[in-house]
Design a protein that fits this description.
By secondary structure, this protein is an alpha+beta fold. It contains 4 helices and 9 strands, in the order H-E-E-E-E-E-E-E-H-H-E-E-H. The chain has one domain. The strands form 3 sheets. It has a 5-stranded antiparallel β-sheet. A two-stranded antiparallel ribbon has the order 2-3.
Length: 237
């Protein structure tokens, strides 16, 4: 009995020490991880808005929720001090086959997609993960013969399909003959999750941004409209 209590006490001390060590390690690395995540988000925003070089991003505050997550969007300005946005980015969340897929989306001021990048997914390897697959331009013979061409800068073919599409053209199709986003073979659910979340995200962004832009344009027009002069001098009787 005494040996059992001694062993239990030893294990308890070890468990407590391990917990303290893990807590200290977590606190020490949390700020580094948060900074790294912010840098990754910034890089993804710039990637999906390639035409706005040197963009300055400003978070658009919103209480909207999509798929159980806070809808976060950013307005992109071409330079410091600019008052007219050149585009917007947001993160869309869609329920895939085995995970929630997070996609960074960029749109222009007409709400057409300028690019997307899947930033988080845990879909089935070899099937759903193909939504991030980069299609090689080299054949096996080219590789074996040492004649392979460089493939730097290639984008995943599934994601590249979204470029230039608006809400009306964001639907999954199973044939290249149809106008839409061609589904990944064997991963229709994952394809639908991404496409549907992007479409819903654009609709939500439009509902948030469009009224604000309309109000700002109305205020600008009102300031520009010349006033009607009035006289405060009464005519002499």
């Amino acid at each position: 009995m005494r040996d059992f209590l001694k062993l239990a006490g030893t294990l308890t001390v070890i468990a407590c020490a391990a917990s303290v060590a893990l807590s200290v390690a977590y606190q020490a690395t949390r700020e580094v991880k948060e900074r790294y995540d912010l840098e990754e988000q910034e890089a993804a925003r710039r990637e999906v808005l390639p035409e706005v070089e040197g963009a300055v991003f400003e978070r658009v505050e919103t209480d909207s929720v999509m798929n159980g997550a806070r809808f976060v969007c950013y307005a992109a300005y071409p330079s410091e001090g600019s008052t007219e946005a050149a585009g917007y980015t947001f993160v869309a969340y869609g329920r895939g086959y085995s995970s929630t897929i997070a996609t960074m989306v960029g749109v222009d001021t007409a709400f057409a997609v300028t690019g997307i990048r899947i930033i988080s997914q845990r879909e089935t390897p070899g099937l759903g993960t193909k939504i991030q697959e980069v299609a090689s331009r080299n054949t096996l013979w080219q590789v074996l013969a040492g004649k392979a061409v460089g493939e730097e800068g290639l984008r995943p073919w599934f994601q590249a399909q979204f470029d230039g599409r608006d809400e009306s053209r964001l639907r999954v199709v199973k044939s290249r003959a149809d106008d839409g986003v061609l589904a990944v073979t064997g991963a229709t659910i994952s394809s639908e999750a991404v496409t549907g979340s992007v479409r819903r995200g654009i609709a939500m962004l439009r509902s948030i941004v469009a009224p604000v832009e309309a109000a700002e344009q109305g205020a600008t027009a009102a300031r520009a409209e010349p006033g009607v002069p009035t006289s405060t001098t009464e005519a002499a009787p």
